[in-house]
Amino acid sequence: MFVRRIAVIGTGYVGLTTGACLASLGHRVVCADVDEAKVRRLTAGEVDILEPGLAELVAEGIASGRLSFVLGASSAVTDAEVVFLCVPTPMGVGGIADLSAVESVVDECRDLLPAGCVIVNKSTVPVGTSVRTSELLNRSDVAVVSNPEFLREGTAVSDFLNPDRIVVGCDQQDAAERVAALYARLGAPTVLTDAASAEMVKYAANCFLAMKLSYVNAVAELCERLGANISDVTEGMGYDRRIGQAFLTPGPGWGGSCLPKDTHAMLQVADAADFEFRLLRATIDTNERQRQRMVEKVRMAVTGKRGGSLSHVRLGLLGLTFKAGTDDLRDSPALAVATLLHQAGAELVGYDPALSDGHDVGKVSLSDDPYVAAKDVDALVVLTEWPEFRTLDWARLASVVRKPVVVDLRNLLDPDVVRRAGFTVSALGRSH
Ligand code: UGA
Fold this sequence. Notes:
- The protein is α/β, with parallel strands linked by helices.
- The chain has two domains: about 5-195, Rossmann fold; about 230-430, Rossmann fold (3-Layer(aba) Sandwich), CATH 3.40.50.720.
- The protein has helices at about 15-25, 35-45, 55-65, 75, 100-110, 130-135, 155-160, 175-180, 195-225, 230-240, 260-270, 280-305, 335-345, 370-375, 395-400, 415-420, and strands spanning about 5-10, 30-35, 65-70, 80-85, 120, 145, 165-170, 190-195, 315-320, 345-350, 365, 380, 405-410, 425.
- Helix 1 packs across helix 3 (about 55-65), helix 9 packs parallel to helix 12 (about 280-305) and helix 12 (about 280-305) crosses helix 13.
- Bound molecules: uridine-5'-diphosphate-glucuronic acid.
């Protein structure tokens, strides 16, 4: 069954992906945003988010007449059957999610929503927000449903169209079923539950992923001390189907616009419920400590001793975005490590395949060529897991650096290849 009147409020990577994918499933979707220039660009099919497949889906949606863009939520909702809220919920004061964007859309649309329509909260919001939204809305003829998204940046379209699961929560069963039906063609397992549980699934999942990464980063550190190899350890662990191979690669810590925000928000929610969530606190602390540990790894590799000085040391940083496949620098562990390296006195040149002049990369001087970034450096430091770093011409890099040292903080490179080119390599979770 196709729904003819879906409104999506907010055209960030969640909103735009949701709108374009729902249109591709056969529904008719109007996406609204407050940014007039953005609405104009999207109407012309111009997508400025780096998300594989999204521009094509937007173009197809526009051509089919099933996807359109309007300025302002009120223009989109007047005849909507289902309204998706995909507005930002950034980290507010004290780590609590800032819901002002959700609240302002509700205020704007309260009197415009047709009777019987369903509001769907896709933004990550604290447990209890759906109930609060219902209260704010104060319309007994409009149901509020929680339907969290599980999209990763860089693979959002494919995550949407091949979901591991659909989660829909509402205290009114019929409204939850109407929302679940929108995804029926995807054939994914569907969890129908109450609103609070659906909201909790999103936080619990992201916090679990963060915990998995902090755990693996801690195990990697222990491997270094005990002479074990983390790649073999995680491979051996991951074959256990209860653990799985995914999300077991050590790195400079987890970042981005979701995991840091959601772990802090969950901690706040726990605090407010008078629950001391020590495991989550340790997950966050381990992540913060990881950044400092990365600086020590660089120090050791460059100077050969613990606590060696990095002052006047020139470093070539490979990768600055929070992960590969995106140009997003928000809460990037790479940038956090770069800041600490700068504070320790190092001079930084950086290269990232997704970045060019104009991106704010703090104290790093950005180059658009990895071989230029490597010129005269005392070490190359891999900070983001861009696959193309593996196939750089390592012999050429060896010929331009001052010292052939690589610190691979993503365990990305093939150590044999890099060593054959003349580099010494240090990575995570390996003693040699
Ligand atoms: C994350 C979740 O994975 C999505 O399921 C969720 O929908 C999304 O947040 C959200 O809440 O909207 P995302 O922020 O795009 O997605 O990033 P991830 O792919 O989860 O990566 C998070 C961080 O962990 C990155 O810094 C990444 O480099 C790091 N990471 C990931 C590792 O260090 N090792 C790994 O094995 C995997």
